[in-house]
Amino acid sequence: MPHQTIVSWNALITAFADNLYGNEALHTFFQMENGGFVADMVSFLGALRGCTSLASLELGQVVHSLLMESQYGLDVVLGNTMITMYGWCGSVDDAKIVFEKLLSPNIVSWRSMIGIYCRDGKGEEALGLFYQMHLQGFKPDEAILVGALEACATLGAHEQGQRVHAYLAEVGVFEVLVLENTLLSLYGKCGNLCDAWAIFRRMEKRDIISWTSIITGFCLCGYSKAALDLFSRMQLEGRLDEAEGLIKEAPAEIYSEACLCLLGACKVHGDIERGVYVANQIINMDLNTPLVHVMLSNLYAAMGRPDEAALIREALGRIRMQT
Predict the structure, then answer these.
(1) Confidence of residue 322 (pLDDT cuts 50, 70, 90)
(2) Helix, strand, coil percentages in the chain from 3-state DSSP, rounded to 5
(3) How many CA atoms are closer than 13 Å to the CA of 47, on its beta-carbon side?
(4) DSSP code of 176?
(5) Residue 286: closest CA among 307, 256, 242, 263
(6) H/E/C letters for each residue in 295-310?
């Protein structure tokens, strides 16, 4: 480029950062600096985002140092970007230092810091920040409310979770799937199946996280039969994709029964490919092998594939002769 300007450099840095080319964004940033151009806010934002995409704490600290030497200092937008960068780099302490130095943190600042605490398993710090934010007159958004509920779940803080839940009702936040799922997880971990079940029943939409949370909650409280009943109900609704995904996360006490339930549901819904896959998974783990062969044979027969059904019955005969 014959006539380079700060605008053209920034355009290049930003383009690299937008497309997660962190190395290229930072290389361009330092090349610009070495060429005698003075970085502005846009330059620093792109460089910090480049550090975030690389999760490079060392480079992030270098850019941070250059920023503090500039005229911009801890502008709230730059500060928020820096908090996010340190969070992705795993340096919670550095993120906290930046947050506490912000003169006027905004909702993005609070959201970022609470999210970082939650990801790092620091439930007490996340909740403390949530209450501090509330006292300062900020209205939490959806992501912050999820963070507060996740913090309660991490701590097993049932009463505090109920207070956050009451706040949701107070401000009229209803039927938000991610919040409902987080409440399910919270109440399940705290052993409050009554509230968990009440939330689950009134949910208009449910996804794999909803089903996993309620079924896991019943298992954690020792209600394995109820968990299996829910798993069966899920399959009766034709949610075989979700059921298969749930099996991968299923607690040990219901794993084999859940696999058999899914295999039976595959016959009901005519999903032979999934049925064969599930059957092979069970056989490979030596779980109820004779019964699985019978169910798989019946599945082939129901789908009009008698040759495969006969082969499975022959294999079952050999297994019985060996036992």
Answers:
(1) low
(2) 75, 0, 25
(3) 28
(4) -
(5) 256
(6) HHHHHHHHCCCHHHHH
Task: Specify the amino acid at residue 323.
Answer: T
pLDDT of 265: 75
pTM across the whole model:
0.77
pLDDT tens-digit readout, 3-50: 789 999 999 999 999 999 999 999 999 999 999 899 999 999 999 999
- What are phi and psi for residue 205, nearest 5 degrees? -125, 140
Given a cut of 70, whether residue 320 has pLDDT beyond it is: no
Residue 192 DSSP SS3: coil
Task: Give Cα 96 distance to the centre of its chain.
Answer: 23
Give Cβ neighbours of residue 185 (< 8 Å, ≥ 6 apart).
150, 153, 213, 217
Distance CA 196, CA 61 (A): 44
Token pair recorded at residue 59:
């480079």
Evaluate whether 4 touches 12 at the Cβ level (below 8 Å).
Answer: no
What's phi and psi for 152, nearest 5 deg?
A: -60, -40
Contact between 166 and 199 under an 8 Å Cβ cutoff? The reply is no
Out of 75-89, 128-142, 172-186, 268-282, least confident range = 268-282
From 63, 118, 111, 65, select the one nearest 84 (Cα to Cα).
111
Question: Cα–Cα distance between 119 and 201 in angstroms, integer?
Answer: 29
Q: Can you give the residue ranges of every domain in the chain?
A: 1-104
